[in-house]
Specification:
The chain has about 375 residues and is an alpha/beta fold. Helix content is about 35%, strand content about 20%. Helix 3 packs across helix 4 and helix 7 packs parallel to helix 9. About 0% of the residues have low confidence.
Amino acid sequence: MSQTIIVKIGTSSLTQVTNGNLALSTIATLVETMCNLQREGHRLVLVSSGAVGVGSGQLGLKERPRTMARKQAVAAVGQGRLMRVYDDLFTSLGQPIAQVLLTRSDLMQRDRYVNAYNTFQELLNLGAIPIVNENDTVAVEELQFGDNDRLSAMVASLIEADWLFLLTDVDRLYSADPRSNPDAQPITLIQNLEELTQLQVETSGTGTNWGTGGMFTKIEAARIATSAGVRTVITSGQHPRNIAKILQGEPIGTQFEAQPHASNARKRWIANAVIPSGKIYLDRGAVKAICKRGKSLLAAGILDVVGEFEASDAVQLCDSQGQEMARGLVNYSSAELQKIQGYRSEEIPAILGYIGADTVVHRDNLVLIS
C-alpha cells in the first residue's frame, strides 16, 4: 500500500563532527533508500538540515555562527552546495527532486498554507521528491521554526503524511543520554506522550556543535506529528536502510503511535501551524462544554485574558490552572474581551456599543489539544 513518508535528517548525521564536512557515504545510502521506496510506490519528502553546517565547513569556521546575519550568510553559502550534492546523487538514480524553502510565515497564514499544500501535492503527483529546509537566508527570529525537527512535523501535518522518520545521532530514545550514562534504558514504543513523564526521559540535550536540535525538539516534533495522526520514529541517521526495515515491521528505533486527530485540514492548521498571540482562562463549565460537549466558547465562561491580540488571531484556551486544553481563532480583540468576559452573549451589544459575534471562539475554529 502506498504511503506518504517524511524523512528528516539532522546536521549531526549529514556532516562529520570534527570539521562539518558532508558525510557523503551516509547521504548516498539515504538517497538510495528513498529512491527504492519511491519505486515501490510510496510518496517521499526529505527535510534536510545542514546548510549552515556545510557553509561553515566551506568557509573554514570552527563553530556555528551566533548572530542572525552571520547565520543567514553562511546558510546562503551552504544551501547551494548541499542541493548540488543531493541533485547529483538523486539524478544518478533517475529520481527528480525539488527544492522547497519555507519560513514560519508560509504556514502561519491560511492562504499561504493552502498554497504550500497544493504545491507539495503537485510535486508528489509528478513523482518528484521535495527536499525541504527552513529558508535561513531570509527568516527572522520571530518567524523561525527553531529547528528542522519541528519543521518536519509541521510538513507532515500539512500533507497528511503516514510516517515521520527523525534521523539523528542516537539509535533510539533512552531514559538518559547513553553517551554519558551507561545505565540508560532504551525505549522502543511510546503509545501516548504522557508516558514520557512517567518514564522520566532525559530530553535536555541541545544538539551538536553544528546542529540546533536535541532530544527535546524531537519529542516536540513527535507531539506535533502524532497529534496530526502521523506515526513518528526516532532512529539512527547512520543507518538509513533501517527506514525500509521499520516499514516492514521491525522494532527498530523508538516509535510513537499516531493519536486521534482532527480530520479537518483547517483545524490541523490551527493546532500545528499558527502561533498563539494570547491566552484565555476558562471556568470549569466552559472547559466541560468545550472538551466534553464540543461547544463553542462564550464570553460568560471566561475568567481572564492575557496578552494583546486582534480578532481572528489564534489564542490558547486554558483551564483555571493554566493548562492549555484547546486552541482557536478568536472573534474579538483582547481589549474587547476584557470588557465582556463573564457576561452573557445577549449583553455584549450593550457593553461594546455594537453587535458582535455570539461566540468568542466558534467550534469550527477550535481544536482540542492533547
